[in-house]
Amino acid sequence: MKPLFKHNQSKQVENWRLMTASARRDRLATACETLITLLPDSQHGNAKRVFAQLLTQANKLDAVTDMDGATGESNELRHTARGKALIVGLPSAHGSSYASLLLMAQAVSALLAGCEVILRCVEQQNLTANLQEAFLTAGVPALVLDVANDADLVTLLHMSRLAVVGVVGIQKEVNEVANTLAQTDGILTQLVPITDLEGGHEIFAPDFVFHYSTERVKTVNTTAIGGNASLIELGMG
Q1: Structural domains in the chain (count)
Q2: Is residue 23 a part of any domain in this protein?
Q3: CA distances from 106 to 3, 74, 103, 165, 232 (A)
Q4: Residue burial 42-60, b: 16+ Cβ < 10 Å; e: rest
């Protein structure tokens, strides 16, 4: 049963990554409507602006940049999910009135980029459960999103193949997370912090969602032997 679960999870995660960002956006937009209702009425306006800012990045995530190569090959620059993402609400965030919205924003960003997401916010366990339900109901595959409130944070930060960590908390706590990540083995893990607990100005950066993605180049040879046809003709003259 365990190997089957792992196989199904890998398949769901890969299928989510291979979807267009626009397709993921449509499902997440539905989830965001539910997420707004979980917040106090006074925050509904801010939440709508935050989610709109994030979801509009889908078109940029889907964009393909064509680049000509020196020997005639075509190069396509695309964005793809960075990988497994851990979203953490640190203890200091619990005292912020906007902590819930900021945690939601981190989760939406990671999912929009196509990442597999693990949520951890011990101080807001009801929130993480509600987030998981909202995303599942909106069509995010069940095995793409998990909640790990019972797990030790340091243990999670040492997970195999952890690609990115999104945190909400004060700078001192963020620095502690960064120091722990610096001591881990394996791939380099990207840290995406939100430390402005009353304004969340980081979210409005035009490239915020792109912290959860990475660039990938697809190169296609345009001639049978991989060279520029005009150069070959000149060389054989």
Answers
A1: 1
A2: yes
A3: 30, 35, 5, 10, 51
A4: ebeeebeebbebbbebbee
The CATH number assigned to the domain holding 83 equals: 3.40.605.10
Q: What is the pLDDT along the chain (237 residues), one digit of tens a residue?
A: 345 456 688 999 999 999 999 999 999 999 999 999 999 999 999 999 999 999 999 999 999 887 776 666 677 788 899 999 999 999 888 778 899 999 999 999 999 999 999 999 999 999 999 999 999 999 999 999 999 999 999 999 999 999 999 999 999 999 999 999 999 988 899 999 999 999 899 999 989 999 999 988 777 766 555 555 544 444 333
- Against a cut of 0.85, is the pTM above it? yes
Domain enclosing residue 158, as ranges: 2-65+73-220
Distance CA 197, CA 93 (A): 7
